[in-house]
Amino acid sequence: MKLSKQALIVILIVSSVIFCVSSALTVYLFVSNKNNMNIWSDMPSYMSSTTVNGIGIPAISYSQQNKQVNNVDSRASIAEAMRTGTDDNLNKFTSKNESNGITSYYYDKSVTRIDVPGGSGNFACSRSYYYNYGILYAADIYSGAMHTKLYFSDGSMYRMISDDGTVHDMKFNDTDYQTIASFALYEGKELIKNKN
């Protein structure tokens, strides 16, 4: 199929406009210094085709670093032990209720967990983000009895355990995996800004 010169020019112009708009939006999202509790105002209101626990997840423009992680099972075991320790001792931490129904938990002056209620950020599922001295290492996405676990290292999601128990390790070429990672990394990063 051969395209005419006019069709090629139109395609080139439309592609350039889309690229410029997405670049400008990305710069705006990451350079602007907004209150981190209003992070969802920057998120698009449309859903991706990806679902978590059967619920559509917002599509955002944020790329994880796609770093290969060694000793995935060991790392995930350590992260799970840290997550369990945080959950088991939550009543010993200082909690702070913030805007939009968000609750942050502090050990000393360091955030250990941030809970986001369902419906925030155009996403019906509730989320819990886990931090170790300001570094995101795990997240839970849940709705009712459905529960998905995410594991992070150095700005990359290296493991996702789906609600059905399926383990997905470093599926960097999988669109659904990338969409979930992008959403969680972006939201987790924005929530922790200026807290520690």
Reading the helices and strands in chain order gives HEEHEEEEEEEEH
CA-based shape: globular
Strands in their spatial order, largest beta sheet: 3-4-5-6-7-8-9-10
**Integer-rounded radius of gyration:** 19 Å
Oligomer: single chain
Q: Helical element count?
A: 3
Main structural class: alpha+beta
Structural notes for this entry:
By secondary structure, the protein is an alpha+beta fold. It folds into two domains: 1-32; 38-192, no CATH class. It has helices at 5-31, 72-88, 175-192, and strands at 47-52, 55-58, 94-97, 103-107, 110-116, 126-132, 135-143, 146-153, 156-161, 167-169. An eight-stranded antiparallel beta sheet has the order 3-4-5-6-7-8-9-10, with helices on both faces. It has a two-stranded antiparallel ribbon with strand order 1-2. Strand 7 (135-143) and strand 8 (146-153) form a beta hairpin. The longest helix has 27 residues, at 5-31. The model is unreliable at 19-47 (pLDDT under 50).
Write a compact overview of the structure shown.
With 196 residues, the protein is α+β, with helices and mostly antiparallel strands. The chain has helices spanning 5-31, 72-88, 175-192, and strands at residues 47-52, 55-58, 94-97, 103-107, 110-116, 126-132, 135-143, 146-153, 156-161, 167-169.
What's the layout of helices and strands?
Layout: H1 5-31, E1 47-52, E2 55-58, H2 72-88, E3 94-97, E4 103-107, E5 110-116, E6 126-132, E7 135-143, E8 146-153, E9 156-161, E10 167-169, H3 175-192
Antiparallel strand pairs: 1-2, 3-4, 4-5, 5-6, 6-7, 7-8, 8-9, 9-10
